[in-house]
């Protein structure tokens, strides 16, 4: 019998779009199902549309910014068709869910790009983030607090006793803070939730996700798999705060749309860690888009045994008008 020719078709590729309050991302990942599946990021495209600047201040997204988002999604459509994943998901978070014209914009995106965008709530956002199955790398006897800080909201999820036990979403995000749109009672609500959580004598370990904590982690040149300590995070936050926006861009090499939000992001992480009594934070560098990839792969596994399965690429029937 002749040897079967080598092919990459058996390693499925998926696409995930995260329409956030600060940026819009397209993640393309391939899964290597070798025992425990390995998720290989092949490409990440990030466009700093910053929907939250209008959504949080005005309650809607202007025609000009809406058009920019539509063009971004049309571009992502072309990239998806070129890369031929077998499936995709697109989700929008805080900025879109607070926009009065979100339904009109979702329909417009679908009409122009062929991409269906799901606007999700905070609790669903936390569930998707937890779909990354980071628990497979955790000590089941320990308690963890998963902290995801975005432009519009912060999602907190608890892993205890070998399972995800509770989660909460708070309208505290980096873009909101820059605009002065986070009143004291929102901080108090988050603190009360964490006080209740820490009433147990069992200590918490921290897990952080989001572009800003990833950047802080890399600025400190910490080895993958090692945590960043609270004191190191605090020291880095002070260093960033001492630099002007121009200095963060020109001296520290931060992207312009990262240089302003990284300071309020550090503030959020520091408050959460302080209130939860957490001394160190693991940073696996995953987020919402990675969670969507995991959901797509699990969906793919469920459908693997069905007859007449579509060829790779044909499952994504999207096309711009």
Produce a short descriptive summary:
With 321 residues, this protein is α/β, with parallel strands linked by helices. It has helices at residues 52-58, 63-83, 94-97, 102-113, 122-130, 174-178, 184-197, 211-219, 230-242, 245-250, 256-259, 262-276, 288-303; strands at 13-19, 24-32, 38-47, 87-92, 118-119, 143-149, 154-160, 163-170, 204-209, 228-229, 280-282.
Could you please describe the fold and organization of this structure?
It is globular, with a radius of gyration of 20 Å. It starts with 12 loop residues before the first strand and ends in an 18-residue tail after the last helix. The strands form two sheets. Strands 8-7-6-9-11-10 form a six-stranded mixed β-sheet, with helices on both faces. The chain has a five-stranded mixed β-sheet with strand order 3-2-1-4-5, sandwiched between helices. Mean pLDDT is 90; it is low at 1-5 and 306-315. It has 13 helices and eleven strands. It is α/β, with parallel strands linked by helices.
Lateral arrangement of strands in the main beta sheet: 8-7-6-9-11-10
* String of helices and strands: EEEHHEHHEHEEEHHEHEHHHHEH
Summarize the biggest pleated sheet.
6 strands, mixed
Total number of helical segments?
Answer: 13
Percent in strands = 15-25%
How confident is the prediction overall: mean pLDDT?
A: 90
How many E strands? Answer: 11
Radius of gyration: 20 Å
Distance between the termini: 48 Å
pLDDT < 50 runs, ≥5 residues: 1-5, 306-315
| Broad shape | globular
Give the helix level as a range of percent.
Answer: 40-55%
Question: How does the helix and strand content classify structurally?
Answer: alpha/beta
């Amino acid at each position: 019998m002749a040897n079967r020719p080598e092919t990459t078709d058996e390693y499925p590729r998926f696409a995930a779009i995260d329409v956030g309050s600060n940026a819009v991302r397209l993640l393309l990942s391939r899964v290597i199902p070798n025992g425990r599946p390995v998720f290989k990021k092949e490409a990440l495209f990030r466009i700093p549309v910053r929907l939250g600047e209008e959504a949080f201040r005005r309650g809607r997204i202007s025609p000009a910014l809406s058009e920019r988002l539509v063009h971004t999604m049309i571009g992502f459509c072309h990239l998806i068709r070129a890369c031929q994943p077998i499936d995709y998901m697109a989700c929008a978070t805080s900025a879109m869910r607070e926009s009065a014209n979100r339904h009109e914009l979702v329909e417009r995106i679908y009409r122009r790009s062929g991409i269906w965008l799901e606007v999700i709530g905070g609790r669903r956002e936390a569930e998707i983030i937890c779909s990354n199955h980071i628990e497979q790398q955790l000590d089941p006897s320990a308690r963890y607090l998963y902290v995801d800080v975005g432009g519009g909201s912060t999602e907190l999820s608890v892993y205890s006793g070998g399972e995800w036990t509770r989660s909460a979403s708070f309208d505290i995000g980096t873009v909101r803070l820059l605009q002065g749109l986070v009143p004291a009672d929102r901080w108090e609500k988050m603190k009360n939730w964490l006080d209740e959580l820490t009433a147990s004598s069992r200590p918490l370990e921290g897990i952080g996700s989001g572009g800003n904590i990833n950047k802080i982690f890399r600025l400190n040149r910490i080895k993958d798999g090692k945590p960043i300590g609270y004191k190191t995070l605090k020291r880095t936050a002070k260093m960033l705060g001492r630099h002007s926006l121009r200095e963060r861009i020109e001296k520290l090499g931060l992207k312009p749309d990262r240089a302003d939000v990284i300071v309020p992001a550090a503030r959020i992480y520091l408050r959460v860690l302080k209130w939860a009594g957490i001394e160190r934070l693991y940073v696996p560098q995953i987020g919402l888009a990675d969670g969507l990839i995991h959901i797509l792969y699990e969906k793919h596994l469920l459908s693997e045994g069905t007859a007449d399965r579509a060829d790779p690429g044909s499952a994504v029937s999207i096309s711009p008008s």
